Amino acid sequence: MKKIIVIDGQGGNIGKQLVKRIREELPDAYIRAVGTNSIATGNMIKAGADEAATGENAVIVAARDADIITGPVGIIVADALLGEVSSAMAKAVSDSKAIKVLIPVNKCDILIAGVKDKSISELIEAAIRQIVL
């Protein structure tokens, strides 16, 4: 069984959509939602995560034994998501041996060259295709 960690912040909209689609495509997957704040965590729980936690230490612990980590690209950049991602969080995700499937959101001063403007829904579907492989 794949252990999939979904990390998101702010309102948790991307994480919520990821959890929902992963649950639809991989009903037996173990999904742990980790929010950088309680609102994001709550929205991912409502979407169907198996368990959830909030905050810096939760990200660090979850990243240790994940098979896949997914969320917006900002989860690997210190101070991203309007400052919600700490240096320790970004390092934990970056250093994890897990496969990272990141949503290339061009926000928070992170611009990804070559990424065409696509809707969040299209980006989520592209991520799901990578996770389901």
Task: Describe this protein's structure.
The chain is an alpha/beta fold and 133 residues long. The protein has a single domain (3-132), classed as Rossmann fold (3-Layer(aba) Sandwich), CATH 3.40.50.1220. 43% of the residues lie in helices and 20% in strands. It is built from six helices and five strands, in the order E-H-E-H-E-H-E-H-H-E-H. Strands 3-2-1-4-5 form a five-stranded parallel β-sheet, sandwiched between helices. Helix 1 packs parallel to helix 2 (38-46). The chain is globular, with a radius of gyration of 13 Å. It starts with a strand and ends with a helix. 41% of the residues are buried.
The number of domains:
1
CATH architecture: 3-Layer(aba) Sandwich
What is the straight-line distance between the termini? Answer: 13 Å
Quickly count the helices.
6
Order of helical and strand elements: EHEHEHEHHEH
Strand order of the largest sheet: 3-2-1-4-5
The overall pLDDT average reads: 94
Please give the number of β-strands. Answer: 5
Helix content: 40-55%
In CATH, the homologous superfamily goes by the name TPP-binding domain
Question: What top-tier CATH class fits best?
Answer: Alpha Beta
* Overall SS class: alpha/beta
Largest sheet: 5 strands, parallel
